[in-house]
Write a structure and sequence with these properties.
three-stranded antiparallel sheet; Phenylalanyl-tRNA Synthetase, Chain B, domain 1; single chain; 149 residues; 7 helices; mainly alpha; 2 domains
Length: 149
Amino acid sequence: MGMSDLIADFIGQVLQESDGLAELQRSELANRFGCVPSQINYVISTRFSPERGYMVESRRGGGGYIRIRRVQIDPMQLVMHTVNAIGAELDAPTAEAFLQNLLDAEAVSPERIRIMAAALGDNALRPVPRIMRGPVRASILKQMLISTV
């Protein structure tokens, strides 16, 4: 298991034990895992992003902290929030993160998630020129989500 995975697992465990809200100090985490604070920033920005259902507040400095909150939202609101968050283009990893968040929140059934993932993958979009895959992927996901509401 890599360092980023260890850090993410630790933060996830803290979130679970504290009912979805964790207040951590970047320097303490870096010391605990023997890494630089920028690695903590990397883990937080990639594993605890809004696409994955988290809100992150950060204050730097001596008494600084990172506050991570798991967002609890009504499933239909989450679907509409996701539609609004997609934007004009969408890469495959971000699409996967959106789908995983919807699955984790039980906002969309596992069967529908599998179908959406297949339709958004690079294999399905192979006939589409690479430069157009992001906009096409975004449009497809938006329409599929709107049809679930």
